[in-house]
Structures are given as structure tokens and as C-alpha cells.
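Readers of this paper often ask what the protein records in our data store actually look like. An entry from our holdings is shown next, in its original layout:
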Amino acid sequence: MKNSMTLRIITTGGTIDKVYFDDASEFQVGEPQIAQVLHEARAGIEFVIQTLMRKDSLDMDDGDRAEIARAVADAPEKRVIVTHGTDTMIESACRVDPPADKTIVFTGAMQPVRFQSTDAVFNIGMAVAAVQTLAPGVYLAISGRIFDPRRARKNRDAGRFEEIPGS
């Protein structure tokens, strides 16, 4: 039974769910990993997983972003996490226009959950904490920080997200 603190987790694919098959970095986006991460962490939260798509974010288009925005708007829960590839996470987050009473947090990873040196587990934990404590709005939880997606960028050289200077 759902309570007022049940989280909706919408998965869209991205590196967080990638499975690599060989040294040539051939991959496919696998099954969503977030439920396993939350169970292994013994997270004491109720959540519902909605797999929307399994795409690398570089393969997403405006139709996919509209589908994400619709899924967020249609979610009955007031707290929503969206797992997403980091390359176009900002573009998708900026397309979401949340109702005044919803908190939406996008997160992803630079390394897949299945990698030993992944940032995914940390980012998922941040997203779970953020979605429960932040005021309604749309946020990114990644690289040890919470960002307004309109004021953030991915720094590929440094391998992290950062605030746009002067914003």
C-alpha cells in the first residue's frame, strides 16, 4: 500500500544501467539497477519503479523528453526520481514543468552500477535524500551536489557536473 512518502522512480536508461560485453566497450542498456541498489543499501523507503525506456541519453530525442515530462506529470506520487544518462540529463530535466506540489530529482552515473568504482550508488543515495527533503521543483543530484538544471553543466574533462559560473 502506498503512503504519502512513496517515491516514484522513472528509469530511462543511460550509463547507470549499462552492461559492457568486451574490451572494445560494446554495451547495451540493461535492466534498471536502482531497485537492487536500494535493496542492498537496506533503504527504508517505499518506492515504485516505472521503466519508461532503456536508451543511451545521446540517442534520446524531443519525443523521448516529452514522454519523460508526461510520465513525471502523470505520476501520482509527489516525489519522483528519474534515472537518466548524463550526456543529456540537463536537457530532459529542463523539459519537465512540475506541478507546484512535486519534487523531481534527476540522477545518473559516469560509471555503470555494475562497475566496482561506480559513482552510481552515491548518486542514487543523494537523489533519495534530496527528493525527500527539497522543496517542490526540478533538481539534479550528481557529483556530490544538488543543482538547478538550468544552472548546471557536465564537465566531461573533469568527469563531473558543476554550476555554470556566473549563474
